[in-house]
Amino acid sequence: MPQLHCYVPEDMAAQLQQKAERLHLSVSKYLALLIQKDIGNQWPEDYFELFGSWEGEFVRPDQGKLEQREVLL
Questions:
Q1: Distances (CA, A) of 29 to 35, 50, 59, 64
Q2: How far apart (Å, rounded) are the C-alpha atoms in residues 20 and 17?
């Protein structure tokens, strides 16, 4: 797996370290998750197999009466 290096301001590095610690992750793992979320564009495994798999009924609840609104000219 390739290693990437980047430079960030000290205050940003401190915030990054704190955020990773709060999530119980290493900075490297936290950054990898952020990158994956931002540029990952793959569909989840078996995503397309879900189409047509709903076996229940969809019943729309009663919507009630429409409210009367002022007519704007």
A1: 10, 30, 44, 50
A2: 5
pLDDT tens column, 13-28: 999 999 999 999 999 9
The reported pTM is 0.54
CA 35 to chain CA centroid, Å, is 12
* CA-closest candidate to residue 30, choices 10, 7, 13: 13
Report the C-alpha gap between 7 and 21 in whole angstroms: 20
**Distance in angstroms (rounded) separating the CA atoms of residues 54 and 52:** 6
Give rounded-to-5 percent helix, strand, coil for the chain: 40, 0, 60
Can you give the pLDDT at residue 46?
A: 85
